[in-house]
Amino acid sequence: MKNKLEQLRQEALKQLEDLKESKSLKNQKEIWRALEIKYLGRKGQLSQILRQIKDLSTSEKKEVGAFANKVKTEIAEAFSEFENKFLSSKAGQSQVDMSLPGKRSSLGHLHPITLMQRELEELFKSLGFSILEGPELESDYYNFQALNIPEHHPARDMQDTFYVNWEDQEDENKLVLRTHTSPVQVRAMQEFGAPLKAIVPGKVFRNEALDASHEHTFYQLEGIMIDKNISISNMIAVMKELLKGIFKEEVEIRIRPGFFPFVEPGIEIDMKCRLCQGQGCPVCKQSGWLEVFPGGMIHPNVLEAGGIDSKKYSGFAFGLGLTRLAMMKHGIADIRLFNSGDLRFLEQF
Length: 349
Ligand code: DAH
Fold this sequence. Notes:
By secondary structure, the chain is α+β, with helices and mostly antiparallel strands. It has two domains: 2-93; 112-135 and 180-346, BirA Bifunctional Protein, domain 2, CATH 3.30.930.10. It is built from twelve helices and ten strands. Strand 7 and strand 8 (263-272) form a beta hairpin. Helix 1 (2-19) packs parallel to helix 4 (58-87). The radius of gyration is 39 Å and the shape is rod-shaped. It starts with a helix and ends with a helix. Bound molecules: 3,4-dihydroxyphenylalanine. 3,4-dihydroxyphenylalanine (DAH) binds at residues 180, 182, 222, 260, 262-263, 294-296, 317-319.
């Protein structure tokens, strides 16, 4: 029996020694656990031998018993030493398994609206426009009043507005989530004066009933050009150039009169709907045309609000639906996809 015990001792220690060579920490742990059960477990080999001791004679019991205890302690110590040194010590934990395949970290990419915005910024930069920003939380004054839309003017109904702190504020300081990027027109005039060529891309907010083409949050891009002798033909030329730049081909447009209190005259530039090729679909409200650039000649009242002499200078302004343009460009039929966070949609860009 002593021989058996000695054999067991040697075998257990040898297996532990071999295990030290193993490269994979995960495997090492698993094998260590299995060996521990094999040698030290209740049904393990050592227990089996120990159970037979009771059948020995008294003198043998004493001798073999003492030896068995020694072997058991030695094996147990070897196992716990292995655990401390190789499995749970700092060195063990930080051990990198070089044999495992690496994890590729996936990089995201820019949102389709951001891509559209950057493309337009490049185009306008090439035409000599600068790029400006304005606050998303805007005063009633800049959002409406400075744009020739006084309190109670019916034109306010065109833009369902999210008012903020309606009760507490003085009229002029009443805050709104800007309903369009147009307030930056007057801010820019006040800051830079004339002549001025600038665009303002940005987020705008409206209390809309949601459907395939209306969201509460969307993007516009405002543009203004102010100088001596600017006329509506300058605007049409810039718009045509722009559409050509975006769609890489001549785009069919039509021009209609349009009303906005901050321009006179006001126009609407429509482009042929590219989703249905002018046949009519839900996105173009079955008309075959999409309003892309509303704009016109900046109203003298607005120039004056911006501190610019309206007798000396004239200019045009337009507000383009950045979100809508991205829909046209990529053939996206539902505006709600942009903010849905749906990767199946986003990963296409
Ligand atoms: N701000 C208008 C809107 O959101 C769009 C617009 C119309 C902007 C005419 C302009 C403009 O600059 O001249 O509905």
